[in-house]
TrEMBL record:
It comes from Acinetobacter kyonggiensis. GO terms for cellular component: periplasmic space. This is Copper-resistance protein, CopA family. Residues 34-146, 214-317, 467-582 form the Plastocyanin-like domain. Keywords: Copper, Metal-binding, Oxidoreductase. Residues 587-597 have a biased composition (Polar residues). It comes from the Bacteria. Residues 392-421, 587-607 are annotated as: Disordered. Residues 392-407 have a biased composition (Basic and acidic residues). GO terms for molecular function: copper ion binding; oxidoreductase activity. InterPro entries: Cu-oxidase-like_N, Cu-oxidase_2nd, Cu-oxidase_C, Cu-oxidase_fam, Cu-R_CopA, Cu_oxidase_CS, Cu_oxidase_Cu_BS, Cupredoxin.
Amino acid sequence: MSIQLSQSLLVGVCLFSSSWLYAAVKEYHLNIDEQMVNITGKPLKRITVNGQFPAPLLEFEEGDDAVIHVHNHLKNKDSSIHWHGLLLPGLMDGVPGFNQFKGIKPQSDFIYRFKVRQNGTYWYHAHSKGQEQDGLYGTLVIYPKDKKPVAVHEQTDRDYVVMLSDFHESTGDQIMKNLKKSAEYYQNERETVADVLKQVKRDGLKSTWKDRSMWNQMRMLKTDLSDVTGYTFLINGKTPEQNWTGMFKANEKVRLRFVNASAMSFYDVNIPNLKMTVVSADGQPVKPVAVDEFRIGTAETYDVVVEPKANHYQIEAESIDRSGFAIGTLRNEALAQTPAIHMPKARPRALLTMEDMGHGASGDHANMDHEKMQHSMMKHEPAPIDHTKMSHAEVAEHSQHQAKSDSESQQQMEHSAHTAAKTTLDHNEQPVYGWANASTPAGHKALQYSDLKSLTPQKDTRPAERELEVRLGGTMERYIWTINGKKFTEVEPLQVKYGERIRLKFINDSMMAHPMHLHGMFMQLENGQNSSDMPNKHTLIVPPGKTVTALLTADELGEWAIHCHLLYHMSSGMMSKMIVANVDGNQVATTPSSPSPAKQGDAHAQH
């Protein structure tokens, strides 16, 4: 061990000993197990924490010393817990293979210890294979010291978590196997002959022919908004029929902490006839924004404040593929009973456009030179083959491959036919174009990233010293997702100096939106605001065919995961490692030689 690291450890232990004497210790025991759960009327074995599905809410106050004992009672599976959005030492971040953390072996324990250095709405989940899908996720709420709100507009009478999630009758492992068999395994929402005829009537035969030829050439589906279907959508672990309910009294202000703990789902959220004021994004306070609805990506959180005037409201979170709703209720406690839910009419399912593919504005479809298209983009099938340039043996090999592909497609069509009855397109609806189009009613305000402003000025407003490009792509044919053209097992880590100011440039070359999450630090989203007003985010939605940038001050030493938070995208390779290190001559250290006051209490847990 180097002298620098030894001194760092000594300083860290002394600081921790001092802080431990004066800080409140908040301790939890979490027992990870497998049990039968009954969510949809069919008993299934899933992961529970302390016998609960999903995992229980954990609560802290800023300044607490968290001590969380995790006991892995799974018979044959390693496990782990990642504290999503928390600032903490690398070892405590809970990602196997990072910062010398090796996961929690079956029938073993691990103690997470860290200083709680922030407040807000966060969550926790497994970082081990499909366990997040199978139930190992829960909400984590950190209150300001003495529970005093950080701003006047945050003073509320009631405080509720609204955790959104997606439950599947298949396990995470089985879903992954199905996607590897065919990326279109779950695609049961396809356009029909009736849709084509409607397009001909609306746009004319010539325009329709060009449009359809283009999509066929790229082997893409306009309706491909979600990789996985067949979900039941939950609020705090309850189905719409089970109707989670939050109570209020007349004239009260209510805080709703929305957490998207889904494995694969985006939602459009609204409370009909009730305005919402967004006061926090990803746990970080923002200047109030009054909205009628907002889209929440996987792993994001939003806090909203509402002031109910009627006696009853329905919370509606609709998946963007329009396959279902998570529904809950807000009601005046003076009512004798909770009114029954009513299932809303699904909004039209958006159709992807060439703009979503990164090929310019959607209105330019007919004028594009398709011969020059980038076939390196996300493909559902291989590009067309020119047989005139192939040998007889190559043609025969390709024919065999095509026959196998056709057989798999037939199996997929049979699967789709079996499940398509669950979600049927209303062919009387006018088509809606573009991933970002949520069919927001006229006159209603939907939250945009550009609306978000940090409540307090950013401390670091330096321009970026350099730019790191994070290019998102993959191959649907084999269901492999990549960062900078490589999957996680092949990619080189991103190297960053401690204290360096960088720009992260996320370029989405695919037809799917990716919620990109950075562990250990907050990014400042470049959303058109002044540098001092940019909002902090730990997760950024990068829409299909778009580029999103953020500034980052690399002020947390360690190895940090950066990945798409769609579970099966991450599991299929869309993940990288960012290493933040002190560089002093030939020495590289991932612990500070003299921790700053903001980081006191962290150093003890680095080793």
